[in-house]
UniProtKB/TrEMBL annotation:
Keywords: Cytoplasm, DNA damage, DNA repair, Endonuclease, Hydrolase, Nuclease
UniProt similarity note: Belongs to the MutH family.
Presence of keyword Kinase: no
Coiled-coil ranges (or none): none
Subcellular location as annotated: Cytoplasm
Gene Ontology MF, one: endonuclease activity
Lineage: Bacteria, Pseudomonadati, Pseudomonadota, Gammaproteobacteria, Chromatiales
Main localization (coarse): cytoplasm
Pfam family, one: MutH
Keyword Nuclease: yes
Protein name, entry field: DNA mismatch repair protein MutH
Species in which this protein is naturally found: Rheinheimera aquimaris
Domain DNA mismatch repair MutH/Type II restriction enzyme Sau3AI: 53-151
Length: 223
DNA sequence: GTATGATCATGA
DNA sequence: TCATGATCATAC
């Protein structure tokens, strides 16, 4: 168990020291048991790395490293370095979204500074043998910021106009809106097509795998 | 239910 | 084959 890193440099040094270690090795350092699989422990890898790097624990609506303003995200990849999954960002507000602007949104704030930690996580590899890659800090460049903002504004407009039920995951260039719920019976409040209150599945914002793939390419491009 | 952490599993 | 839609655990 680590204390909280004092600086970005310390966070980078710690995260890069994990490169090449397996999840089993990191768990052993922390004296933690590795679950047989992730079916009932889907968040285990993220929580393991949070502990290892000294992120603030628990379910708080703030960055993993509050004093650094950095969010930690694991990124499962295959042997070719391609993301295996989309990346969850945050839940989407479905009511009272009238005056909300991009720069005040959770999506924008959460993505301002992210520590990405790639994990070689093909399903055939036992959990304890999966290997941590080279972590890197990322901040969206101007183009990325603009494209994310455009996706967000389109999705939020549709929610505002009562069209949440018609939003599919395929919509959006980089940012998508998909269910984020315990199960299909967990409903929340939203607005219907005629302005009437409805119940619907809670939604979350996710980064498409093609977008995180471009971040990896940008980071690890040869030359 | 909402927040945290995501991956599972199946339809296209 | 793979992205979308569905789901799992836990704290509060």
């Amino acid at each position: 168990m680590h204390s909280s890193p004092a600086s970005l440099a310390e966070l980078q040094a710690r995260s890069q020291a994990l490169a090449g270690l397996t999840l089993g090795q990191i768990a052993a350092q922390l004296q933690l048991q590795v679950p047989a699989n992730l079916q009932k422990d889907k968040g285990w890898v993220g929580q393991l790395l949070e502990q290892s790097l000294g992120a603030s624990a628990g379910s708080k609506a703030e960055p993993d490293f509050p004093h650094l303003g950095v969010e930690l995200k694991t990124l499962p990849i295959d042997r070719d370095g391609k993301p295996l999954e989309s990346t969850y960002v945050c839940v989407a507000p479905l009511t009272n979204v009238g005056g909300l602007h991009w720069h005040d949104s959770w999506v924008c704030r959460k993505l301002q500074h992210v520590l990405w930690i790639p994990i070689l996580a093909e399903r055939q590899i036992p959990l304890s043998e999966r290997m941590v890659g080279t972590a890197f800090l990322w901040q969206p460049n101007v183009q990325q910021q603009q494209e994310l903002q455009q996706d967000w504004e389109e999705l939020m407009e549709q929610i505002t106009l009562g069209g949440v039920a018609n939003i599919r995951g395929a919509q959006g260039k980089h940012l998508q809106l998909r269910p984020k719920a315990a199960n299909s019976r967990a409903l929340t409040d939203a607005v219907g097509a005629h302005g009437e209150p409805i119940k619907t599945l809670p939604r979350g914002f996710y980064l498409k795998a093609t977008f995180t793939a471009s971040l990896l390419a940008q980071q690890f491009a040869p030359g």
